């Protein structure tokens, strides 16, 4: 086998490989000789089939197997022998000329093919002990836990039907049909719907017009959908809702006690408060970690400057761009609505893709040198967390991942990345800083103000959901799988 480098520019490599016809012939004869004692052909005793006859019958198919074996085994070994690591699956090219291919399969011509790939650049691990980050910490006060407990208890609040007019805080049970330009619209009707006046669950202005309604009343509610409403075809449009009220009910008082906790399936009020405290601390802790991680990634981004493999960048950009355009389409917006142009947006996301790939390779190298491993138990735990997000379909989702190793392997990259971040956090300087909730969430709220609208939902007159953040605002920017394979 003759191996010749034909291209070595930047990270791009191309190798020309020639397997002489005599070597191909030798491999073919070896396989045929091995098959001689195994095949059964009418007219010949077992093990007595002449090799020439075997070649006449099976020669081309066996040579095709030889070709595939060479392509499968030599590509990786050649790159490894060169001391290189391909950024992505190498591109292998061979002749497409049928007559040449026939000669190769007949053992009458050399087998030639080329291997094109990009290498992962060598990364020299830098000392990180000089990196300093500030970890913002918010201590959840007891008052916030009680406030959240009261909101949770609202789900257990009971209502008593009453005669008379609806007031703020009352629950109204009704049927409604929404119309735009006099025509009902999809998702704008419901029967037996419950709404608590003042809860702000419906679009602005809807609940206010129910004040004073009585059981049996029929009325027309006039509203205008918000300009940023998630259903783009309704955003900013005037609408009417034909409402028929069937019941008015007044709320019973709520007192936080063990009975309320038990109505929620818990043993005691203390247990309810423990659960709420844990959830709040987890939520704010996630924000804290992401902000610290962002500082760390920014520092690494300043430290490591090298050319990233263009194919990896291209793949990452495609993923980001597809998400951005889907979000824009879902929100019924254009780049102009976001005070930018498509060209400017492409340039911005191209820079983000390059950063993600470069940081992914850096984290992969750091993790590899530090011996970071993702255990089977951690993979299983990640799988189960994903399965739980599909209630009613748990078994199907579980079976899908268990039967698709490639899909299951996708869990490894984010787990690996977080473990590398944990490792780095033990090496850098971390200063804790107590902050208010507003300070902790300040950046997130700024991102939220610039975020895309959430995916379009059914156009029931509900309050607009919180929009999804742009790809550029995503906290976890590094893509460890780029170099962790």
From TrEMBL:
One of its GO terms (molecular function) is protein folding chaperone. PROSITE patterns: FKBP_PPIASE. The keyword Thylakoid does not apply. Residues 438-485 are annotated as: Disordered. GO terms for cellular component: cytoplasm. GO terms for biological process: 'de novo' cotranslational protein folding; cell division; protein transport; protein unfolding. The keyword Cell cycle applies. It is found in: Cytoplasm. Pfam families: FKBP_C, Trigger_C, Trigger_N. It catalyses: [protein]-peptidylproline (omega=180) = [protein]-peptidylproline (omega=0). Its EC number is 5.2.1.8. Residues 169-229 form the PPIase FKBP-type domain. Residues 448-461 have a biased composition (Basic and acidic residues). It comes from the Bacteria. Keywords: Cell cycle, Cell division, Chaperone, Cytoplasm, Isomerase, Rotamase. Residues 462-471 have a biased composition (Basic residues). SUPFAM superfamilies: FKBP-like, Triger factor/SurA peptide-binding domain-like, Trigger factor ribosome-binding domain. Belongs to the FKBP-type PPIase family. Tig subfamily. Consists of 3 domains; the N-terminus binds the ribosome, the middle domain has PPIase activity, while the C-terminus has intrinsic chaperone activity on its own. Involved in protein export. Acts as a chaperone by maintaining the newly synthesized protein in an open conformation. Functions as a peptidyl-prolyl cis-trans isomerase. PANTHER family: TRIGGER FACTOR CHAPERONE AND PEPTIDYL-PROLYL CIS/TRANS ISOMERASE, TRIGGER FACTOR-LIKE PROTEIN TIG, CHLOROPLASTIC. This is Trigger factor. It comes from Aquibium oceanicum. The lineage of its organism: Bacteria, Pseudomonadati, Pseudomonadota, Alphaproteobacteria, Hyphomicrobiales.
